[in-house]
Amino acid sequence: MPEMDVFTGRLNPDMCLVTARAGAERAGCLVGFASQCSMRPFRFVVWLSKVNRTFAVACAADFLTVHVLTPRQFGLAALFGGVSGDQVDKFARTGWREEHGGAVVLDEAAAWFVGRVVQRTDAGDHVGFILDPVQCGEREQGGGGALLRLSDALTIDPGHPVD
Questions:
Q1: Model's pTM, two decimal places?
Q2: In sequence order, which residues have a C-beta less than 8 Å from that of residue 155 and are 6 or more positions away?
Q3: Which has fewest Cβ within 10 Å: 7, 17, 104, 135?
């Protein structure tokens, strides 16, 4: 419904970067749809586009990592939001490590959490991955400040454009 632009055009959500690992396969993408969705038990949901390679890997993953970035990490956002993992190994271009359950954590992120996938919810062109956090952390230096928001990321052309 195009009329919804009068509502959604006023929103400026925080951007998250989600990484997934299933076996030897790794993937990651920039996500604009993410939110805490329960207080007791604590749950967080990230919505992944079905056309994104990260979606396919996340469907086979037990854990996902959700990262928040500051505007200083724009380069990381551009890499994971504007480059398709179908052609490029994004992880070869940045520092990362394995954490709980083999989850991939990006060294440059301001803060992150690993969540166990407890449910997947199909909502059309995106699927919601409901996560139960099992581990979290933050960057020791330079991780503070305002978070990267949608308005900061508008110049990133999606690696997998949506029609």
A1: 0.90
A2: none
A3: 7
